[in-house]
Design a protein that fits this description.
Elements: H1 6-14, E1 49-51, E2 54-60, H2 65-68, H3 75-83, H4 87-93, E3 108-111, E4 113-114, E5 128-137, E6 143-149, E7 155-160, E8 163-169, E9 175-178, E10 186-195, E11 215-216, E12 220-226, E13 229-237, E14 242-250, E15 258-263, E16 268-273, E17 279-285, E18 301-307, E19 310-316, E20 321-324, E21 327-330, E22 333-334, E23 337-342, H5 357-370, E24 375-378, H6 385-394, E25 397-401, H7 413-430, E26 436-443, H8 449-465, E27 470-475, E28 478-482, E29 485-489, E30 500-504, E31 522-524, E32 531-535, H9 556-570, E33 576-579, E34 587-588, E35 600-601, H10 614-628
Length: 631
């Protein structure tokens, strides 16, 4: 069974969330929400362990027989057959046991990857898929072992040697289970059931504008730690200019344990002792030699926390982000966010959704180097850890968000619980990343009383979990007319809870506006907060040209002119402090089925294969001018 982590219990209890034991049914009342049965293992990707990527057996289970039993009952017996039975031996014995499930004879695929690439018949499969593999292990003396998944979409059940470890809901955040006592010397078998089906109460809801990539799409690792280890650590520069350190130890010697923060390049060696709950919190004066992280100079420091036999480490950049009136201040100086949005899809036509460090750098380098961006919006869910680490290294500020998208089931307490847990998992994973500037809590959500309560709750959670960054959301606007020209008004009450207002606008693409009329559009927004155009864009099929004076939609010329007119409109808004147009590259969306799209959203500035469209150069020139003018 998973061993409960005291720090995450304390953190999530503080924001009103309760936990359930691994493998048990979580509580479902209106005031409490289930949390993942997981330790944090912050910076787990830098810890030693065993990579379980590679060949796995897989089997579809469209009737979910592995959960409900072959005749709809006895789920535990059925689970055992999926998770641990030797079907070949059972058949040879002829003892009459069920042997409809034979994972050892099932097809083989390579993980991580969405199952959309496993076989042609899997391309549009949605539902439950089982994965299984064997691995060799030796139970380490005096150590603990955790099985950690970077993400699996959407609901996941995990078993080791036939024993259920626990469950997780949410397709984009990591989860882990302790397996120290279940691990066997020699052969071990791990079984994972992943169900991609979502419902009206899921986060996100069933209808989105992107591909639903079912499967295990991120890393699968066995991670070793000492018996007492640093499970959570957060090292940051506060807005007051001091270094603040929070750490939590987990294990039998967590209380009263001597600990030490070490930053060799800054000559920092700060000692302390954990309290009765294994926590250590301190602040120190920032060294005079500290160089602040920025897009121009993305300085990262090797940071370590030593505690007994454990040495936690990470690479951390130190900077501050805040607002003053309508300004966004990075390290105390105003900054204009020259950005672009992107989905978590690598360059290429294969729908595997596997973001390696090389793939992350390829995507973000298009933004940083070719587009002259200093900012990316990672839409519409938490992206892989490799993406934010690459943003740290390259020098790109990040808008990070959870998939509270469109028509969420606002009045459903389970949905709120899922969203709260998801945003907590996102923040706790990434709050050591210097690149993260904005935690976004929603995208394009219609205004209702229930929605306001839901999102106000998320905004409050973010501030309790991380008071060093900005809270944002992408909001909707209302259209009217005055003095013969269009007026766009943002009067969303959620704006009062935000540090940064995002607005998605598509005037000139959706609706009846002529491109020539777009610059005259008037914007009425609150003037006491910075505004970001979090989306704007127009579709274009790469290679389709229409050189007429009034080119047709879906041509590269139309998209390029759309950008010229929209940028002219944006230049007239005095509180505009950033842009993240939609989108860097074309991405898969099954709802897009006209002759130009065929399952792709074509609003990318580059094609899925990396071909730059005409509009790319329009935006790059605009950003280069701002970059050279330091505006």
């Amino acid at each position: 069974m998973a061993r409960w982590h005291l720090s995450i219990i304390a953190i999530l209890s503080a924001i009103g969330l309760s936990l359930s034991a691994a493998g048990q049914v979580p509580s479902r009342d209106a005031s409490a929400a289930p949390s993942s049965p997981t330790p944090l293992l912050v910076a787990a990707d830098l810890r030693p362990g065993t990579d379980l990527s590679g060949p796995w057996h897989y089997s579809v289970d469209p009737y979910r027989a592995g959960l409900a039993g072959f005749h709809g009952g006895a789920p535990n017996a059925s689970e055992a057959r999926w998770a641990d039975i030797d079907v070949g031996a059972t058949m040879r014995k002829g003892d009459g046991a069920m042997f409809e499930f034979d994972m050892d004879s099932a097809p083989i695929t390579t993980l991580p990857a969405s199952w959309l690439t496993h076989a042609a018949e899997m391309r549009y499969y949605q539902g439950l898929v089982w994965y299984q593999r064997h691995f060799q292990a030796t139970r380490p003396a005096g150590k603990r072992v955790f099985l950690r998944l970077g993400a699996a979409n959407y609901k996941t059940r995990v078993y080791l040697n036939g024993t259920p470890l626990g469950e997780h809901e949410g397709g984009f955040t990591p989860f882990a289970f302790e397996v120290t006592k279940l691990l066997r010397d020699g052969d071990n078998q791990v079984t994972i059931g992943v169900d991609s089906a979502v419902s009206d109460t899921s986060v996100p809801p069933p209808v989105t504008d992107w591909e639903n990539y079912g499967g295990i799409t991120r890393s699968i690792r066995l991670i070793e730690t000492p018996n007492t280890y640093v499970d959570d650590a957060w090292v940051r520069l506060t807005r007051s200019g001091t270094l603040a350190i929070d750490a939590h130890l987990d294990g039998p010697k967590a209380a009263g344990q001597p600990v030490r923060l070490v930053i060799p390049a800054l000559g920092v060696s700060q000692a302390g002792t954990t309290d009765a709950n294994g926590n250590w919190r301190t602040t120190i004066a920032a060294p005079r030699a500290l160089e602040r992280w920025s897009p121009e100079r993305p300085r990262l420091y090797d940071v370590a926390i030593e505690a007994g036999d454990d040495r936690w480490r990470d690479q951390v950049g130190f900077r501050t982000i805040e607002t003053r009136g309508s300004e966004i201040l990075l390290n105390g100086r105003p900054i204009f966010l020259r950005g672009i949005s992107l989905h978590e899809e690598e360059l290429g036509v294969s729908p595997a959704r596997v973001i390696t460090p090389a793939a992350a750098r390829a995507l973000l380098s298009e933004a940083k180097q070719a587009l002259h961006a200093n900012f990316v919006r990672l839409a519409h869910y938490p992206h892989d850890e490799t993406m934010v680490r690459a943003a740290d290294a390259l020098g790109l500020l990040v808008w990070s968000e959870v998939p509270v998208y469109w028509r969420i089931s606002w009045a459903n307490p389970d949905t709120l619980a899922t969203a709260r847990r998801m945003i907590a998992e996102n923040i706790l994973r990434d709050r050591n990343r210097a690149s993260i500037a904005i935690w976004s809590i929603a995208n394009e959500t219609p205004i209702t009383d229930a929605r306001n309560i839901f999102l106000n709750t998320l905004a409050a959670d973010v501030r309790r979990l991380d008071d060093t960054r900005l809270v944002g959301a992408a909001l909707l606007t209302e259209r009217s007319a005055a003095s013969g020209h269009p007026v766009m008004t943002m009067s969303d009450p959620l704006a009062a809870q935000l540090d940064v207002m995002g607005i998605n606008t598509y005037n000139g693409w959706y609706g009846d506006d002529r491109l020539a009329d777009v610059p005259a559009i008037e914007w009425r927004v609150p003037t006491d907060k910075p505004l970001i155009f979090s989306e704007f864009g127009a579709d274009a099929k790469a290679g389709f040209h229409d050189p007429r004076a009034m080119p047709q939609k879906f041509s590269e010329e139309y998209q390029a002119d759309y950008y010229r007119q929209t940028l002219a409109m944006a230049a007239k808004i005095p509180t505009l402090r950033g842009l993240s147009p939609w989108i860097l590259k074309d991405f898969r969306s099954p709802r897009r089925q006209n002759a130009f799209q065929q399952g792709w959203n074509r609003k990318g500035l580059i094609s899925e294969t990396g071909q730059h469209k005409l509009a790319f150069d329009v935006l790059a020139a605009f950003y280069r001018e701002r970059e050279e003018g330091h505006r």
